[in-house]
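YM 10:42: Dihydrolipoamide acetyltransferase component of pyruvate dehydrogenase complex sequence, as discussed on the call
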Amino acid sequence: MAAEVVMPKLGMAMKEGTVSTWNKKVGDSVSKGDMIASINSEKIEMEIEAPQDGVILDILVQEDVGVPPGTIICYVGNPNEQLTEQNSSANELQAPKNEVAAAISLEEPPANAASSKKSKETVRISPIARKIAESENINIETIQGTGPKGRITKADVEKVLAEGASESSPQTVERDNPAINKETLPVAGMRKVIAGRMHNSLLNSAQLTINMKADVTDLLSLQREIKEVIQQRHSVKISLTDFIARAVVLSLQEHKQMNSAYIDNEIQLYNHVHLGMAVALENGLVVPVVQHAEKMSLVELAAEIKTRAADARQGQLSTDRMQGSTFTITNLGAYGVEYFTPVLNPPETGILGVGATEDVPMYKGDDLQRRNVLPLSLTFDHRVLDGAPAANFLGTIKQYLEQPILLLL
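YM 10:58: structure's back
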């Protein structure tokens, strides 16, 4: 029996997905697990696999066409299998386009209208890029596409906007009008999703940030001692972030109120820890989620964090790996940032910001020593808990980081 291949839902906010490239055509043989197409949404791009052995019986959604999640994009079945009902669905999908074409043909077009229309329809461009180009009055025929098979992407249109290469804005006007002589970037795609989520987060919660520093001198020493052994035995490179993640997981188990969410005027406490680890991408930020981190050892947690981060950077992070987080960690230490104010990832109660480790002189008893200090910034929802319990939670993280042997137990 023929199997339906549908457009997956790549995120809670996803309203439309686009087929970027078909790797197979109708009649091609496929095996279960073969990559048959690439699809993308505003936030991520991923490969679609064949659900079973067989052939591609029909393709219902062409490249660069956006459709809602759940829409059937193709069928995989046995050779010569008949698809009577499916073919009618395909005709329904194409009907609006045909109706528009018929309506246009009733009017008498200008002499060059046919050639112009044909030229624009043959330009390979993503729906998002087309929408931006139309809103900014940019002639898509002048844009050089850098996507698959020369497809014009959102980034290509944004580059044209940044360079001020719109045909409707002559250089003389730009030079004489200071208001035009500026760079404007549209808020679209992943940036638009992030902007909306962060704005709603601040509007719909009572956020407060507290800071604390942890002496991680002994922790860094332990890391140097065990990293080679762990890498040889488990093929995992242990980083400072992995130790911090482990400390957070253990602390969340001791402070249940922080491992929670404020939903519909109720505080929902979780027994499991689904840890979100923010990953910066070229065009935005995603938060891969390590499910049931409370059941993992330090080595297992480190391996999962690295796998999720790699999948995110390669655009291969599945939807279920970006949902359900109960607490998030974001690290700006690599950028030299010390303390900062992270914004909650709703509906979570807390998010931990990690800064750059700094060498400082510090007294240990009567001795002045060179120590490594790690800045920590905790943002929490004041509707769920007050400053004292939040400080206790952050203090527990500090305790684990300053007594790193506890992280190995």
